[in-house]
């Protein structure tokens, strides 16, 4: 059940008796750009460290222990043209604990302290906490750049999504991070609280009327704009060009990006999901069977949909001498799919795998909440059951149409420096 408290502020209740916890997520949505993403990523690493009331790490730990092991975390997420700062908290459902009538209120009050009363020193965010957050974010970004598969994908995103949100990392950039000040993050914090559309999500077994009243009495979010465009389709020109980049790595990695031309809210998107499953998502797919099993060119290969950006991506790690053969094989499998060279049995097996994945999401709290928030971002109310029905009804003709809507945009080959000159 969704309730609009005021413009730009929404409650989203997800009832389930499958869990012994109650989870509260608070999501702040903002337009994605590199500068703000960097500032918001640092902010996310500062917010749950401590607050005015619990001004040391030990006090924060103690209050969570007193709430029967409550958890608190914060992260940033990219979703097409949007950037989300997400606060997460989980606590045991009071029905399983004697004498815990105020447990949910205490959980919500703790979240409020973190959100509205951060830890200040002499009127500003703590330099110690800021410096630590900058170090942590720098380390996180560097790990991604040092991982060959991730780095090759980032390069392909930049190539295929030039001047578009796909090219921007939700973590931000090292260049902006190196120049960041506490004042920058403070301004971003105030903007987030005041201007960002906010959704408060609660999942578990609880009294919705009581929960709604508690949230409205505890969180005093003001009215704000609710318009942030998240989903779009890439408009980059098609290209067969291969971009080769050298890096000190032991294995060559290939990343390829197609634009699919199908908006994630379009009913045709179900056919694209089946098409992706046939092409490369599962062990039954053409990429896995041909590139890995038949030709033994890689240990793993997969395709995936980046739904909010209208992109399809392929990634694999190979030996340097197999670059040309692997790229050619990947293209051949895509052409086979475009011509409809796949059986009804493969369609049926792929549908079953997608449907099983959708059904399994109902047994995982994080997946349920992620699904519900995606619906909010896409301004729709598509239930898992309706999604399953759409997948079940996909025809071969619709799959062919989805394949033929795709165009290759970028191919990036990341290879070791010594190997590149052999």
TrEMBL record:
Protein name (database record): Putative Zn-dependent peptidase
Pfam families for this protein: Peptidase_M16_C
Gene3D superfamilies documented for this protein: Metalloenzyme, LuxS/M16 peptidase-like (3.30.830.10)
GO MF, any single term: metal ion binding
Domain Peptidase M16 C-terminal: 179-352
InterPro entries: Metalloenz_LuxS/M16, MPP/UQCRC_Complex, Peptidase_M16_C
């Amino acid at each position: 059940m969704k309730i609009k408290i005021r413009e730009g502020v929404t409650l989203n209740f997800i009832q389930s008796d499958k869990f012994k916890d109650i989870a509260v997520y608070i999501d702040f949505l903002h337009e994605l750009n590199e500068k703000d993403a960097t500032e918001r990523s640092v902010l996310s690493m500062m917010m749950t460290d401590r607050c005015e009331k619990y001004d040391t790490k030990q006090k924060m730990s103690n209050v969570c222990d007193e709430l029967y092991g409550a958890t608190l975390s914060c992260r940033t997420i990219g979703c097409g043209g949007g950037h989300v700062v997400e606060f997460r908290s989980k606590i045991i459902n009071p029905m399983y604990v004697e004498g815990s009538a105020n447990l949910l209120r205490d959980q919500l009050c703790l979240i409020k302290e973190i959100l509205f009363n951060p830890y200040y020193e002499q009127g500003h965010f703590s330099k110690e906490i800021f410096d630590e957050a900058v170090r942590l974010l720098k380390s996180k970004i560097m790990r991604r750049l040092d991982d060959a598969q991730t780095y090759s994908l980032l390069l392909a995103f930049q190539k295929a999504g030039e001047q578009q949100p796909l090219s921007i990392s939700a973590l931000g950039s090292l260049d902006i991070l190196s120049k960041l000040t506490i004042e920058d993050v403070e301004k971003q914090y105030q903007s987030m609280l005041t201007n960002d559309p906010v959704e408060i999500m609660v999942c578990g077994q609880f009294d919705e009327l009581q929960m709604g009243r508690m949230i409205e009495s505890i969180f005093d979010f003001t009215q704000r704009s609710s318009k942030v465009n998240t989903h779009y389709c890439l408009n980059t020109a098609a290209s067969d060009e291969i971009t080769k980049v050298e890096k000190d790595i032991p294995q060559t990695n290939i990343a390829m990006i197609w634009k699919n031309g199908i908006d994630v809210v379009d009913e045709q998107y179900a056919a694209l999901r089946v098409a992706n499953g046939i092409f490369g998502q599962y062990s039954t797919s053409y990429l896995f069977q041909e590139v890995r099993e038949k030709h033994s060119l890689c240990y793993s290969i997969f395709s995936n949909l980046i739904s909010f950006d209208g992109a399809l991506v392929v990634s694999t790690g190979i030996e340097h001498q197999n670059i040309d053969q692997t790229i050619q094989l990947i293209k051949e499998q895509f052409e086979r799919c475009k011509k409809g060279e796949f059986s009804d049995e493969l369609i049926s097996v792929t549908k079953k795998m997608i449907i099983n994945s959708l059904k399994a999401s109902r047994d995982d709290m994080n997946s349920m909440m992620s699904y519900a928030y995606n619906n909010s971002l896409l301004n729709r109310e598509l239930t898992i059951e309706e999604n399953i029905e759409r997948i079940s009804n996909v025809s071969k003709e619709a799959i062919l149409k989805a394949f033929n809507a795709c165009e290759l945009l970028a191919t990036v080959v990341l290879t070791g420096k010594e190997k590149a000159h052999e």
